[in-house]
Design goal:
Keywords: Cytoplasm, NAD, Oxidoreductase, Phosphoprotein. With about 325 residues, the protein is an alpha/beta fold. It folds into 2 domains: about 180 residues, NAD(P)-binding Rossmann-like Domain (Rossmann fold, 3-Layer(aba) Sandwich), CATH 3.40.50; about 60 residues, N-(1-d-carboxylethyl)-l-norvaline Dehydrogenase, domain 2, CATH 1.10.1040.10. About 55% of the residues lie in helices and about 10% in strands. Strand 7, helix 7 and strand 8 form a beta-alpha-beta unit. The chain is globular, with a radius of gyration of 22 Å. The two termini are about 20 Å apart. The protein binds 1,4-dihydronicotinamide adenine dinucleotide. The site of 1,4-dihydronicotinamide adenine dinucleotide (NAI) has 22 residues, from helix 1 and strand 6.
C-alpha cells in the first residue's frame, strides 16, 4: 500500500475515465489531483466520486484498505495546469479521443514537466508514435489503456512509443499493480492494441454468423455469455488450448488441421450497416430498449455482475 506521502497523480480530463482513475489511485493510497478545462466538470466529478465511494463502501465493494472518507480526502480538484503538474509523479491524460486535442495537451505538458514524471495516455486506439511524436520527454511517455468500467475490470494495456524508456514501462507496470489493476505489456504498438483486436475478431465473426442466418442475434450472445465467456473469465484462450489436451503441442497436433479448415471459411470484414444492423438492433431492443433508462439499468446490472465476479476471482486459491 502506497501512502499519501507519494507524489500525487494528476488526472487531466475528469470525465468518465478520469473519474475512474481518480478512484483507483485513491484506493491505492495515492494523492490525486483532478484537472479539467471545465471547472464545473471538476465539481460534478468530485460529487459523483463521493456518491460512488459511499455506495461502494456500503455494499462492501470499496477497493483498497482505506475508508471512503480517507480516500476522498486524497482527491482534490485543480483548475490551473501549471499548479496541477507541480510535484506529480504520474500524469494520466483522459481527454476526449481526438488526436489533435491530445497532441496539443501533450505539447503543453511537455513544456512544463520535469524529467521524472510519467506522461500516460488513456487513449483507446490512438498510436503512441502519433500521440508523442516530437516530444522532448518522449522517453517518459506511454499509453495506459484501461477497460471500461476500469473500477471493475482491472486490465490495463501498456503501450510504449518506440523511444519510450523501458524504465517508464516498468514504473507504470508497478504503479498499476499497486492500485490493484492488471497491467499487460504490449511490446510493440499496433492498431487496436491487443484487447480491441481480439474484441473485433469476435465481433466480426459474430456479425457474419448472424448475417448468414446461421444463428439468431440473441443465441449468438448466449454462446458467449453462457459458454465461451464463462471459461475465458478465468483462463485465456492459449492456456485453454494447453489444458484441453495433453499440453499445447498435443492440442495443435490434434486440432490444428480442424482449426485451419474452419478458419479458411471465415468471410470478409462486415460492413456493419444495412439489413443486418437493423436485424441485430431490433433483436437487442427486445431485451434492452435503446433508451437512456433501459441502457443505464442494464449497465448497472453488468457492473454488479462484474463486482461479484471480481470477488470470486480474488477468492480463488490459484490464479
Ligand atoms: P469524457 O468525454 O467522459 O471526458 C473527457 C473530459 O476531458 C471532459 O471532462 C472534458 O471536459 C475534458 N477535457 C476536454 N478538453 C480538455 C482539455 N483541453 N484539458 C483538460 N480537460 C479537457 O471522455 P472519456 O470517456 O472519459 O474518455 C477519455 C479517454 O479515455 C479517451 O481517450 C477515450 O478513448 C479513453 N477511454 C475511454 C473508454 C470508455 O469506455 N469511455 C475506455 C477506455 C479508454
Amino acid at each position: 500500500m502506497a501512502t499519501s506521502a507519494a507524489g500525487p497523480v494528476l488526472i487531466v480530463g475528469s470525465g468518465l475515465i478520469g473519474r475512474s482513475w481518480a478512484m483507483l489511485f485513491a484506493s491505492g493510497g495515492f494523492r490525486v489531483k483532478l484537472y479539467d478545462i471545465e471547472q464545473q466538470q471538476i465539481t460534478n466529478t468530485l460529487e459523483n466520486i463521493r456518491k460512488d465511494m459511499k455506495l461502494l463502501e456500503q455494499s462492501g465493494s470499496l477497493k483498497g484498505s482505506l475508508s471512503a472518507e480517507q480516500q476522498l480526502s486524497l482527491i482534490s480538484g485543480c483548475s490551473n495546469i501549471q499548479e496541477a503538474v507541480e510535484g506529480a509523479m504520474h500524469i494520466q491524460e483522459c481527454v476526449p479521443e481526438d488526436l489533435e486535442l491530445k497532441k496539443k495537451i501533450f505539447a503543453q505538458l511537455d513544456e512544463i514537466i520535469g524529467d521524472n514524471v510519467i506522461l500516460s495516455s488513456s487513449t483507446s486506439c490512438l498510436l503512441p508514435s502519433k500521440l508523442f511524436a516530437g516530444l522532448v520527454h518522449v522517453k517518459q511517455c506511454l499509453v495506459a489503456h484501461p477497460v471500461n468500467p476500469p473500477y471493475y475490470v482491472p486490465l490495463v494495456e501498456l503501450v510504449p512509443h518506440p523511444e519510450t524508456a523501458p524504465a517508464t514501462v516498468d514504473r507504470t507496470h508497478a504503479l498499476m499493480q499497486k492500485i490493484g489493476q492488471s497491467p499487460v505489456r504490449v511490446l510493440k504498438e499496433v492498431d487496436g492494441f491487443v484487447l480491441n483486436r481480439l474484441q473485433y475478431a469476435v465481433i466480426s465473426e459474430a456479425w457474419r454468423l448472424v448475417q448468414e442466418g446461421i444463428v439468431s442475434p440473441s443465441d449468438l450472445d448466449l454462446v458467449m455469455s453462457h459458454g465461451l465467456g464463462l471459461r475465458y473469465a478465468f483462463m485465456g484462450p492459449l492456456e485453454t488450448m494447453h489444458v484441453n489436451a495433453e499440453g499445447m503441442l498435443s492440442y495443435c497436433d490434434r486440432y490444428g488441421e480442424s482449426m485451419k479448415r474452419v478458419l479458411k471459411t471465415f468471410g470478409p470484414i462486415p460492413e456493419f450497416s444495412g439489413a443486418t444492423v437493423e436485424k441485430v438492433h431490433q433483436a437487442m431492443c427486445v431485451k434492452v430498449p435503446a433508451d437512456p433508462e433501459h441502457l443505464s439499468a442494464r449497465r448497472q446490472w453488468r457492473e454488479q455482475c462484474l463486482v461479484r465476479l471480481a470477488k470470486l476471482k480474488s477468492q480463488m486459491p490459484f490464479q
